[in-house]
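If your schedule permits, I should be very grateful for your opinion on a structural question. What I wish to show you is a protein chain and, alongside it, a tokenised description of its three-dimensional fold. Would you kindly read the sequence against the tokens and tell me how you understand this chain to fold? Here, with my thanks, is the record as I have it:

===
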Amino acid sequence: MPSDSESSSNSASDDESTSSSSVTKQTETKPLEKEEAEGESVISNKTFSELGINEELCSACTALGWTNATAIQSKSLPLTLAGRDVIGLAETGSGKTGSFALPILQNLMANPQRLYACVLAPTRELAFQIHEVFQGLGQHVGAKSICVVGGVDMMSQAIALANKPHIIVATPGRLVDHLENTKGFNLRQLKYLVMDEADRMLSMDFEEELNKILAEIPDSTSGRRTMLFSATMTSKVEKLQRASLSDPVRVEVSTKFQTPEKLLQQYLFIPAKYKDCYLSYIMNEFSGQSMLVFASTCNNAQRLTLLLRNLGFQAVCLHGQMSQPKRLGALTKFKSGSRDILICTDVASRGLDIPSVDIVINFDLPSNGKDYIHRVGRTARAGRSGRAIAMVTQYDVEVYQRLEVLLGTKLPAFEAEESTVLVFLERVSEAQRLATREMKELMASSSNHKNGKKRGKHSDDGEEGKMRGEARSSYSGGSSGKGGGYHNQRGGGNAKKKHKQKR
């Protein structure tokens, strides 16, 4: 990459930028132009060269195994390369990262500058994945990127920021920490802002942090381009769009959602208080077969793994709280067959080469029904048969009904006699007790490792923050009779009140 050049300062317009960039400020906008691609497959027939990507980046795409552009990329790349602000509506796994990484790098090559682009993601795991893509593409063109997230020493991050990389991938909370506390660091020359999974970011109450970030960067009149990607267009996302994008084009891709032909899909309607017990029953019924269990949070994935191990099952977990070496180690054990049960979260499973399994169990139903398709696609591959079981409690009925509408069919029930299942209750209750104790020991060990240092308000981002919060208050669901302990399983009302009183 040619030598870097710094743009002139726009400090005189900082006050105007602050007022016009607020998420909470709504301005009049023209009707959005739309580029829609209804019912397309994920991969298009367009090559990156045909879409305007230069030779160096096309070679980088080939090195990453990207042959043809995805549907969202084929629609958005010509627009972003032309300098338009874009709102991309597409599901996870649709190739959104390439949609913003390629135009940023191509324009950076033409106009070299440090601190050129900032990409915001709601969780640490997603930020790491985006950073890996920028590293993979950037190494071919000399672009440097860093990942700034919670849970990592701020001093080492401050040193990396002082070296002024070209691209920063960050979670909002930790980026605000650096903007407020790291001497000499600012984003006043920023040329690109990307907000990935904006709907999720706003649902996690990062609105205040986004306001602060937008107040510290140039506005669109100063030449800053903005790209916003989301699975859905909520009212909060629309408000964010009005505040941060200038005359954007909306690119919406609705891909075909097909489940494998030889997949047997079933549901199991159960009381929330016996949920762990039913899972243990299913594990026992299909003992010896490879199984993938989806949990909603890092904490629950870890807890279920400990629970099943205490019951004698060969289980291993995969979640965003784990380091990259540990995640790869867990995946290696599962691939080798030394462990036949893998328990993971959606975020941790994305982008990893998880082999086809015999059975997929949705212990926690995804709030977005389309994520269900992504999950069950892990079984019944290449003409093989497979089974998917959705565990539905009284708190999941609405989510499950939306799932059936998406699938266009009513799933058959997985038959299980409660009297037979409850034979496991005593053993499961003891395994729960042990798992809870082990979780507390893990949290105590983590706290000691941090030397008792106070953590900032947003030093835990996304799923890691959820995990720590849940582990501190312990699990109140499963077979303990207190009701569900997840976002869609309220029921521990008394426990919740006591927790508030303690705080």
User: Anything to note?
Assistant: Residues 477 and 484 are 4 Å apart (CA to CA).
